[in-house]
């Protein structure tokens, strides 16, 4: 894995934070770590501070219950965190097939222990982190990162994160939605420069 600069390392951290929080409910050690986060006074920094405060006042059972209501539910959660669903209204559609085709040449493969389709928002956040830091074999150039972002993330995750931020069932996860919404806008703007 090649060394990356500080700005790219910060991007990796945000992508991995989003991936971890959206993959499964936080455990006690993660809530403790999150509650200690500090940030600057930028809009994204204030969202990170809000997440730290939320982690400090949320108990483990409440965060687990909220995750289940939002993303699992009895039949399905309040939100369906899959690209195919956001883009077509159905799971396992053409956006998932296109993603799988684009993953192969980048050295990205679905883990055998993962049950969700690859277009889950957490998986996509993890894939972007890997493209930036070389987790899949090589640090990908900005052009490859942008192509992947444009094809599989920019088209729907801003809507997903906005929905999460404004969801009546969200408490702990509201600042996660805000961080995601703001970060996706920052990434989009940076890729367009």
UniProtKB/TrEMBL annotation:
It comes from the Bacteria. Keywords: Chaperone. Pfam families: Nitrate_red_del. Transmembrane segments: none annotated. SUPFAM superfamilies: TorD-like. The keyword Manganese does not apply. InterPro entries: DMSO/NO3_reduct_chaperone, TorD-like_sf, TorD/DmsD_chaperones. PANTHER family: CHAPERONE PROTEIN YCDY, DIMETHYL SULFOXIDE REDUCTASE CHAPERONE-RELATED. This is Molecular chaperone TorD family protein. It comes from Hoeflea algicola. The lineage of its organism: Bacteria, Pseudomonadati, Pseudomonadota, Alphaproteobacteria, Hyphomicrobiales.
């Amino acid at each position: 894995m090649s060394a990356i600069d500080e700005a790219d390392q910060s991007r990796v951290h945000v992508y991995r934070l989003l991936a971890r929080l959206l993959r499964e409910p936080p455990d006690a050690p993660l809530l403790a770590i999150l509650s200690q986060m500090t940030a600057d006074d930028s809009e994204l920094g204030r969202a990170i501070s809000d997440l730290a405060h939320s982690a400090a006042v949320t108990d483990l059972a409440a965060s687990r219950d909220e995750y289940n209501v939002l993303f699992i539910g009895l039949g399905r959660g309040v939100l369906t965190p899959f690209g195919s669903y956001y883009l077509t209204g159905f799971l396992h559609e053409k956006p998932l097939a296109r993603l799988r085709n684009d993953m192969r040449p980048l050295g990205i493969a679905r883990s055998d222990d993962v049950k969700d389709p690859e277009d889950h928002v957490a998986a996509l956040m993890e894939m972007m982190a890997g493209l930036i830091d070389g987790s899949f074999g090589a640090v990908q150039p900005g052009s490859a990162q942008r192509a992947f972002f444009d094809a599989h993330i920019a088209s729907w995750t801003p809507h997903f994160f906005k929905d999460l931020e404004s969801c009546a069932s969200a408490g702990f996860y509201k600042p996660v939605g805000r961080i995601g919404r703001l970060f996706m806008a920052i990434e989009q703007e940076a890729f367009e420069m």
